[in-house]
Amino acid sequence: MSKKSVSRAITVRFSASDYNRIVNDAEQKNESVAEHIRTIISANDEQLSLDQRFVNLERRITNRMFSIVCAVANISDHEREIARQRLNGGN
């Protein structure tokens, strides 16, 4: 038996309203409560990964826009570095 197939139990306490919502959602999706909670955890992991990808994309777009503006403004490498420092909170 591989280690991935070994299951471990975790006990979690929910408020009555959260419990009812989880049970109702699981029933609507025709899943067991355990499977529904695993699905929620997996979706959360995917969302965190997607959020990080958006942050990385925003960073790349910002860097490219900065490069384009610098090229259009025809500023020197030294002026470019000064502008980058100012944008990053430096003086």
How would you characterize the overall build of this protein?
This protein has 91 residues and is mainly alpha-helical. It has one domain. 71% of the residues lie in helices and 0% in strands. The chain has 3 helices and no strands. It has helices spanning 16-28, 33-73, 77-87. The chain is rod-shaped and about 65 Å long. 0% of the residues are buried. The mean pLDDT is 90.
Question: How would you briefly describe this protein structure?
Answer:
This protein is 71% helix and 0% strand.
Largest sheet, strands/sense/barrel: none
What is the residue-averaged pLDDT? 90
What percent of residues are in strands?
under 5%
* Overall structural domain count: 1
Helicity range: over 70%
Low-confidence stretches: none
Overall geometric form: rod-shaped
SS-derived structural category: mainly alpha
Number of strands: 0
The topology string of helices and strands comes to HHH
First-residue to last-residue Cα separation: 60 Å
Total helices: the number is 3
Radius of gyration: 24 Å
What tags apply to this protein structure?
91 residues
Task: Please describe the topology of this protein.
Blueprint: H1 16-28, H2 33-73, H3 77-87
Helix pairs in contact: 1-2
